[in-house]
Amino acid sequence: MELQVIQSKIYEIRGSRVMLDFDLAKLYSTETSLLKRAVRRNMERFPEDFMFQLTKEEANSLYSSGVFQAGTPQYNFSAYAPFAFTEQGVAMLSSVLRSPIAVKVNINIMRAFVSVRQFVLTNESNTKEIEYLKHRIEELEHQGVKAFAMIERLGEETLETINDLSEDNRKEFDNVYLALSQLADKKKQPKPRNPIGFRK
Question: Distance between CA 16 and CA 21 in Å, rounded?
Answer without folding.
Answer: 15
